[in-house]
Amino acid sequence: MKVAYWPGCVSRGFTPELHGSMERVAPLLDIELVTLDRASCCGAGVIAEHNQELADTLNARTFALAQEEISKGASMMMNICSTCQGAQGECQERLDANTPYRDHVNETLSAEGLTYEKGITNKHFLWMLVEEIGLDVVKSKVVRPLTNLRVGPFYGCYIVRPTDRLGIDADHPRDTYLQLLIEALGGDVVDYAGQYKCCGFPIITMNKQNSLRQAGRHLGDAMDAEADTLVTPCPLCHLNLDLQQPLAAGVVGRPLNMPVLHLPQLLGLALGLSPKELGMNKHVVKPSSVIDWTTSVIGAAA
Question: Which N-terminal residues, if any, form the signal peptide (predicted)?
């Protein structure tokens, strides 16, 4: 399957292990990634707060670039960031519903010879795994089952609400896909209070204490539920839950030691890739409850 691949800016900047692990996992699933290197940041709501038209134009440009690749044989656009999925989905809803506005945005894009045509299919990698590849196929490719690994799903905000825009319904229970994937990989799903709540990242520049308190509470809930690790489809959630975890521990007043994996990393482990190949040495909280850290990463690096 060939896809027009939008990795997002965070996965190539703050969390390069996400982009790197996706590139290693893709061939194992017979996915050909055509990276949209010329695409811009989705804005993640920040640009839209100041200039809605600018945010929509940037995303329409990304859609137009993806549609060029679709015209050459790619089946759809794919992303690996829940925040991108949410922000781009909101933008697409506005563009597709308003022909004069879409024409106005396309007038701006015409300077680059680009045009966005209504109706692009843009799916997060998690959705594609379940709906396009199929969990039975994924399961058949597992060479290292995650037996006895207790994994807590962390969805975050942008990939579970609003449900109508995200196409979550009885036929597409996308708010259960992480649980279904964990089970297909041989792991044990751990339910805990914070799995569908905001990680706190959106307010970190406005109210850092509350942001860290949110992250710390979710991490503590997962620890109390005896999870070995969390897995998230969102690099911004990963930043707040992993990078900020030492600070969050101070705010909530309890020790925290909860590894947080990117979705392709968890998948890659089950498909036989090494922790070092998946960039697990780049995490702030070392995933020692997931792997033998000394021999798998430090030893291999030496």
Answer: none
Exposed / middle / buried, residue 58 (Cβ in 10 Å: 0-12, 13-18, 19+): buried
Residue whose structure tokens are 């690790």: 229
3-class state of residue 291 by DSSP: coil
As given in the structure block, the two tokens for residue 77 are: 């656009």
Q: Give the whole-angstrom CA distance, residue 159 versus residue 180.
A: 16
Q: Contact at 8 Å (CB) between 301 and 260?
A: no
**Contact indicator for 144, 271 with CB cutoff of 8 Å:** yes
Cα 269 versus chain centre, distance = 17
Give the DSSP per-residue string, 64-97. HHHHHHHTTT--EEEES-HHHHHHHHHHHHHHHH
pLDDT tens digit string along 18-38? 999 999 999 999 999 999 999
Tens digits of per-residue pLDDT, 87-110? Answer: 999 999 999 999 999 999 999 999
Tokens representing residue 34 in the block? 């055509």
Task: Kindly report the pTM of this predicted structure.
Answer: 0.96
Decide: 82 and 155 in contact? Cβ < 8 Å: yes
